[in-house]
Design a protein that fits this description.
This is DNA-3-methyladenine glycosylase 1. The structure is a single chain. The protein has about 210 residues and is mainly alpha-helical. It has a domain of about 140 residues: Endonuclease III, domain 1 (Orthogonal Bundle). Strands 1-2 form a two-stranded antiparallel sheet. A hairpin with a 5-residue loop joins β1 and β2. α3 packs antiparallel against α8 and α10 crosses α11. It is globular. It starts with a helix and ends in a 24-residue tail after the last helix.
Length: about 210
Amino acid sequence: MAETAEAETGSVVTGEDGLARPPWAAVDPLLQRYYDTEWGMPVRDERGLFERLALEGFQSGLSWLTILRRREAFRAAFCNFEPDTVAAFTQNDIERLLADSAIIRNRAKILATIGNAAATIALRAEGGLADFIWSFKPPTTPEPRTIAEIPTTSDASIALSKALRKKGFAFVGPTTMHALMEATGIIDTHLLDSHRRGSSGVWPRSS
């Protein structure tokens, strides 16, 4: 069980397994598994980044746990986030998605995902979505000891947001892009005392 003092200060919480995690990953089993195995690990393929981009957009205004619990339903509804398939969605597909209670039924976000699929395809002529997003990897990464020390935006996420918008993407605000960069290993915002710090292989544990 997490120690109260740790949870209140936003520092790492040591679980019953002896591993240190941030408070948000220390309670719910689904979040803990996601944190231990996936969050912060590099995603460098087009389909994988398109999925993450879409899910981060759907998460806007909601908790990540809400999205995580629905991820398999999202994958089924959006044909495993294959950009070519999603870009070809018709009005019938939009109505199908709006009627699907297993996902987030937000018309603007659904339309943005379809439009972002088309924008992803267009980016192939310039090297592709993965290379484009990773080109915004900053020269340094945060080194937080508490949750309060983790920024929610950065110069890199602001620049990525602006660049994606110019390419026709939607629901790619600076905060959303910062979350994307954290989740896909482009930056490392694991707390310094977390057992996952430096696990991506992109950044050292500390400078």
